[in-house]
Amino acid sequence: MTAEVITLSSGKGGVGKTTAVANIAVALAAEGVKVVCIDGDIGLRNLDVVLGLENRIVYDIVDVIEGRCKLRQAMIRDKHLPELHLIPAAQTRDKTAVSPSDMVRICNELRPDHDFVLIDSPAGIERGFRNAIAPADRVFIVTNPEVSAVRDADRVIGILEAEDKRGPSLIINRLNLTLVKQNDMLSAEDVLDLLGIPLIGIVPEDQSVIVSSNHGTPVAQDPRSRAGQAFRDIAKRIRGEEVPFLGADKQAGLWDRLQKMTGRR
Amino acid sequence: MGWFGKHRSGLRAKERLQLVLIHDRTDLTPEELNALKDEILEVIARHVDFESDAVQIAVEHDGRSQRLVADIPLRSVTRRRAE
Question: What pLDDT score was predicted for residue A164?
Answer without folding.
Answer: 80
